[in-house]
Amino acid sequence: MIFGWLDERSESPTRHRNGGARHGPPHQVDLAERTCTGPRTPALQEAPGRGGHHAAWILLGALPVLALQASCHAALPPPEPIAVLTYRRPLSARPGAVDATLAFLTEDTIAFRFCTPFDWRTHARTCWLDVAALSGGDLQITAETETPEKPTWTKGVYAMANGAILLTSSTIQYLYSPDLKTRREIPMSFMAPPTPSNVVGRGEADLPNDRWSWTLYRLSPNLVPIRNGRGALYGVTDDYVMFFVDGTVRVETIGGRLLGLHRAEPGSGSYYIPEIIGPGRLYLGGKRPAIADFDGRELLRLRVPGGYGSDNRWSAGGGRMLFDHFIQTPTTLGELIDQYLGLPVPRGANGETIWVVDTSSAGACFEWDSPGQLLGQVGQRHADLSPSGRLLAAVTPTQLAVYRLPETCKSK
């Protein structure tokens, strides 16, 4: 049998086809990071004096086993949704190219933006912003408008105070009324709040002199500056502003009263910008993800998904937190080509994972792992929590889906 001498479980010296023996542990492909179990890839080892040609023949011989392992990288099905809405217009056939994002406006209304694929013949595409209402087990479109393509890249859709909808990009913002009948253009980019708010912040940097400053604005009825300060802006809500200045992270009320501060080292490789999740509480990411108070004291350690993603969401009050992270799951064949043939293999996120965690108990409320398949473009937010934290909505390549979360989240 061609794999007999590659058996990683053998306790005796491995026997080569030419009759020679080789002692010592075989060089194994590390599968410790797999998200499922299944047939293991045989450990490969290079015969003395054979070089890459021998490894190539071994790789070809291993293909049947690699085919058996393909199921290990398949996307895990999410829980059964309570309501779905299929897009009325075709999006990209490639999931990683789907341009769609969303936000809960209220407990039973969702705004979502999606775009048709870019047409290279006309050098154009069309995008829409829709509002859907959840009633019973149905999702119904209540408002729809075509959005301008002036922004070169849309960062996200955000719920603002009084049901308004903020569509953000790297250069310009649009503020829509709840019924989408009116739109106001805001000719600047700024930090949008993670929960419905009427306050936004804009940070500015004088990089040659390493000087940072920020300004807070009230959005309605007009964009009015309400406060400015020194330092790097970290977060803003209707009630709080957080910024880094003189080696400390300060949390203050919008009016300027100090609520908490702690020392930080943004230049360190393990530093993670904290996030305000609710009254008196911060989320600290990095290697030790935890809930902390405004003075940086750890209150609860959290179990969070791997990968990366900077647009975390939480319910009103911060009782539940949503992570939409992008992950890189190399195919077994790609691992072997990279390791044994020395050929370049494309890198980058090719999967996605969505978790909801209870910030009071660290319990898991929702886990949807999709290794090897993206829900949409890398960097966009594809899921959001309702204000109560009892519902989760997600955009997929074909539909908008809503899921009901448990009353109590189990600890792991």
What's the level 1 CATH class of the largest domain?
Mainly Beta
Mean pLDDT: 76
- From the helix content, strand content and strand pairing, which structural class follows? mainly beta
Q: Looking at this structure, what is the CATH superfamily of the largest domain?
A: YVTN repeat-like/Quinoprotein amine dehydrogenase
CATH topology of the largest domain: Methylamine Dehydrogenase, Chain H
Tell me the helix content: under 10%
Name given to the CATH architecture of the largest domain: 7 Propeller
Task: Provide structural commentary.
The strands form 8 sheets. This protein has a 4-stranded antiparallel beta sheet with strand order 3-29-28-27, with no helix packed on it. A 4-stranded antiparallel beta sheet has the order 4-5-6-7, with no helix packed on it. It has about 400 residues and is mostly beta strands. The chain has 3 helices and 29 strands. The protein has 2 domains: about 5-75, no CATH class; about 85-405, YVTN repeat-like/Quinoprotein amine dehydrogenase (Methylamine Dehydrogenase, Chain H, 7 Propeller), CATH 2.130.10.10. The protein starts with 13 loop residues before the first strand and ends in an 8-residue tail after the last strand. The longest helix is centred in the N-terminal third of the chain and has 11 residues, at about 50-60. Helix 1 (about 50-60) runs antiparallel to helix 3 (about 330-340).
